[in-house]
């Protein structure tokens, strides 16, 4: 231990001060937080967790906890069970649905009927209820060994506790990919400084000679566990032996292994039982030890003399009895060393021993039986497959995949092996283990696929190709055949497979506009649900097929049962995304579903809506999600998260940032023929050009997507560039084209698709309107239902209106422009805010010129700035909507005020003026 007598940790002032601040914030302000302690083995993460537990109890927190372990990493919701079991009595106060969901996850109720249940939301409700009495601290050690289903739920909770007095503190090794999936604010635990390291060494080994102490301090490099254990190594192993060339963690494991080899056989066997997942129970009665009470349902009892075993184990310093009388290891590296020393035969024998002492219905027994098996076993394989399906129905797809994979390995016939391996691939994908799915799919491709497994195999292959490889070709070769086969047989490997295959095909078609997908979707449209047909309508050709879509979606959403909801999450999200109708009601329905596949879709839809609705502070989180998706192997998700991040950059006029993101995603998108992304990038380039007043450039980009007066097929999100094309056309003197485009929108009844479509049509109509009706058109756009929802679009509309009012010297221009400028500044869209400032200046606030030669009015300054870029009088007039003659008259006044005689000198004069003002 590295603690002082008063409980403080040596050399950990920075970490403890940070953790104490988190606890104080929960007490004083009701603010929650999720922290992850990261660092190598032995660095002191567990000691910090112990400090946090003690500090929290002193502050009046209720403390909950869980510890990940290798043995239980495959048991679905094992970590969740550790944390939430003590709170179960409080579930009586929860709504019946939340109580039912929690009891199912804890193994107390019937299996969930279908799909992943909204466990995250129910767990959050329970935490909220528990935190009414006092703040909560949840401590999770060894997160790198936590089961995937619990990790998914904890990840959901991390994102939703900010307004609760609830603190999560986890700890995990920094070199483990599983640690990267633990979404929390990282706090890296560094090595102890030299002074603290020496103090700890002297406390643990006060008689160590000075020379030896120096050697240990050098080799330990501030690692507390090494400082306590390395002095035990013989001198020659510090200098010349093999351990000296090993990484520090391996050296420590080697040291523990030497102690294990010296133990009596019964004691070493007992440690192996504990390392493989047995809760080895004993009771220390002072002079002797006995096996724990036989009625203890969680413990197994070792052979031999308990007193002799316990004495040998505790004398070695490798393990001790915890407060419950269960054997606990000195450090996780001891567990690793015990397992690495055992032969395969010894491991299998230990698993058989453990299996024989557990009840037949205990899921741990099945695991131990599996790990003890050597030869194929049809009965055991069938029991494993049944358990895998049950776990998956509870939402434990990741753990179900592991069991199904083992069931395949133990199958006695090729058809069963292939069918179970296919199931394992699908479960792994749904459980967030896409890289493993890819490995299984490659293995399956080398095998003949039984006809009954062909649709499921196609689904697994396409899942990997779309999500992992960003390749959509198999979507159009395999999925139509799978739909044909399912429609002929009428038999689905699992309920809703045809609907999910249809959605995967719809997704690929929406991304690529491949005609093969369109034909197959049309062929099978009558066989799918009304929601699937609506989703196809809004993504196929919305100007002609999506009228009334928002109303239809609202009806289907209200009528959907919870069982239907679990399977329809992706369809609902994708339909709502098409018509920009994914609101808080929809988030509440789906954010509780914790499976990564669903959460990834929810996150993508949410970031897009954040962009449209002005929640641009989430841009950084969008980029973090991209990195997390890449880590999980969901490379298409990562590309799309960066694609949505590019929207925030373009809206802010960040040209350099947009170019950098475009360089990352455009090659992959082009290679996959993802028009959805490449066309969006064209639009975003145009948006940046508009932000900087380069209207001709913007117009040329936009006509690559749609011709004036034409709402094209193959551009389901046509409404987004619709308004921009009208703006660019008006500012480049193409008023006839702008009018034609507005008329096309009206003829297509664009305003009957969604509220956002209606707002953009009204905004475009105002910009293109003749002077005598323009003001009324602007006010009509403001009055469109939910117009204020679209924060960025509304700010741009006010900028256009304020500019129109300013040119007509209307006093209300000031208020309209001020509101636009304030909105742009809240969004961080500085180029747009500067445009508002220029308009406000032109409306009446004169600006200083240089050296007292004269003062430029706002309009004169804008003309000077445009002339400095090399634009002709005609081009300047078009941009500012004045005549070339007016531009010439202003330039005649500008030259003497700036003290120049040519257009070429304007740029330098303006730069000098800016420097003088600074």
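Sequence proposed for the structure above (918 residues):
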């Amino acid at each position: 231990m590295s603690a002082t007598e008063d409980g403080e940790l040596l050399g950990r002032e920075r970490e403890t001060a940070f953790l104490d601040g988190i606890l104080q914030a929960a007490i004083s302000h009701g603010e929650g937080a999720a922290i992850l302690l990261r660092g190598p083995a032995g660095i002191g993460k567990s000691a910090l967790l112990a400090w946090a537990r003690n500090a929290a109890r002193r502050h009046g927190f209720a403390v909950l906890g869980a510890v990940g372990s290798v043995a239980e990493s495959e048991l679905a919701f094992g970590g969740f069970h550790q944390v939430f079991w003590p709170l179960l009595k409080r579930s009586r106060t929860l709504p019946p649905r939340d109580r039912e969901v929690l009891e199912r996850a804890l193994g107390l109720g019937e299996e969930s009927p279908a799909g992943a249940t909204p466990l995250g939301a129910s767990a959050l409700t329970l935490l909220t209820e528990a935190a009414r009495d006092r703040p909560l601290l949840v401590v999770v050690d060894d997160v790198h060994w936590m089961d995937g289903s619990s990790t998914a739920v904890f990840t959901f909770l991390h994102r939703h506790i900010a307004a609760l007095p609830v603190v999560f503190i986890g700890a995990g090794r920094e070199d483990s990919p599983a640690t990267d999936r633990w979404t929390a604010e990282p706090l890296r635990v560094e090595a102890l400084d030299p002074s603290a390291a020496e103090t700890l060494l002297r406390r643990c080994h006060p008689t160590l000679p000075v020379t030896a102490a120096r050697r240990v301090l050098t080799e330990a490099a501030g690692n507390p566990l090494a400082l306590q254990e390395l002095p035990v190594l013989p001198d020659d192993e510090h200098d010349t032996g093999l351990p000296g060339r090993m990484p520090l963690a391996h050296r420590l494991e080697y040291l523990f292994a030497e102690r294990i080899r010296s133990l009596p056989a019964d004691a070493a066997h007992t440690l192996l039982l504990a390392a493989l997942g047995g809760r080895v129970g004993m009771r220390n009665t002072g002079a002797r030890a006995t096996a724990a009470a036989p009625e203890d349902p969680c413990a197994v009892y070792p052979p031999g003399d308990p007193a002799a075993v316990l004495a040998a184990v505790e004398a070695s310093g490798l393990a001790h009895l915890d407060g419950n009388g269960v054997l606990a290891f000195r450090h996780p590296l001891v567990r690793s060393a015990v397992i690495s020393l055992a032969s395969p035969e010894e491991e299998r024998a230990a698993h058989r021993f453990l299996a024989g002492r557990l009840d037949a219905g205990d899921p741990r027994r099945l695991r131990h039986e599996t790990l003890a098996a050597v030869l194929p076993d049809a009965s055991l394989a069938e029991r494993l497959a049944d358990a895998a399906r049950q776990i998956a129905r509870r939402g434990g797809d990741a753990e179900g995949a592991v069991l199904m994979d083992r069931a395949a390995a133990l199958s006695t016939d090729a058809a069963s092996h292939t069918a179970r391996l296919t199931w394992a691939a699908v479960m792994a994908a749904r459980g967030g283990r896409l890289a493993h799915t890819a490995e299984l799919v490659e293995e399956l491709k080398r095998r003949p696929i039984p006809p009954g497994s062909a649709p499921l195999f196609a689904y697994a292959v396409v899942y990997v190709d779309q999500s992992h490889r960003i390749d959509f070709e198999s979507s159009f070769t395999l999925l139509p055949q799978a739909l044909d086969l399912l429609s002929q047989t009428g038999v689905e490997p699992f309920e809703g497979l045809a609907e999910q295959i249809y959605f995967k095909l719809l997704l690929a078609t929406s991304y690529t506009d491949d005609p093969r997908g369109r034909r197959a979707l049309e062929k099978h449209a009558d066989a799918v649900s009304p929601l699937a047909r609506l989703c196809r309508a809004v993504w196929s050709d919305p100007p002609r097929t999506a009228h009334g879509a928002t109303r239809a979606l609202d009806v289907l959403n209200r009528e959907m049962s919870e069982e239907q909801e679990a399977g329809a999450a992706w369809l609902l999200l994708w339909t709502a995304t098409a018509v920009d109708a994914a609101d808080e009601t929809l988030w509440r329905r789906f954010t509780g579903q914790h499976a990564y596949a669903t959460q990834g879709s929810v996150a993508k839809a949410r970031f897009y809506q954040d962009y449209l609705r002005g929640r641009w502070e989430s841009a950084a989180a969008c980029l973090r999600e991209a990195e997390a998706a890449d880590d999980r192997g969901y490379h298409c998700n990562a590309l799309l998260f960066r694609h949505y991040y590019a929207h925030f950059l373009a809206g802010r006029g960040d040209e350099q940032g947009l170019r950098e993101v475009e360089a990352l995603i455009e090659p992959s998108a082009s290679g996959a023929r993802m028009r959805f992304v490449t066309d969006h990038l064209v639009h975003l380039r145009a948006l940046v050009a508009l932000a900087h007043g380069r209207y001709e450039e913007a117009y040329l980009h936009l006509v690559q997507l749609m011709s004036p007066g034409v709402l094209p097929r193959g551009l389901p999100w046509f409404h987004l560039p619709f308004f921009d094309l009208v703006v660019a056309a008006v500012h480049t003197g193409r008023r006839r084209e702008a009018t034609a485009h507005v008329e096309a929108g009206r003829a297509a009844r664009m305003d009957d698709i969604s509220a956002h479509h209606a707002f953009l049509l009204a905004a475009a109509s105002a910009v293109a309107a003749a002077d005598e009706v323009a003001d009324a058109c602007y006010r009509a756009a403001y009055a469109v239902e939910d117009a204020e929802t679209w924060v960025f679009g509304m700010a741009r509309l006010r900028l256009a209106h304020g500019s129109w009012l300013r040119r007509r010297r209307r006093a209300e221009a000031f208020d309209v422009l001020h509101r636009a400028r304030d909105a742009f500044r809240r969004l961080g869209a500085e180029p747009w805010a500067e445009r508002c400032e220029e308009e406000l200046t032109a409306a009446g606030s004169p600006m200083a010129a240089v050296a007292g030669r004269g003062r430029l009015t706002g309009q004169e300054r804008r003309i000077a700035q445009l002339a400095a870029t090399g634009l002709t009088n005609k081009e300047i007039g078009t941009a500012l909507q004045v005549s070339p003659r007016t531009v010439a008259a202003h330039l005649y006044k500008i030259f003497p005020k700036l003290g120049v005689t040519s257009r070429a000198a304007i740029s330098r004069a303006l730069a000098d003026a800016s420097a003088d003002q600074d």
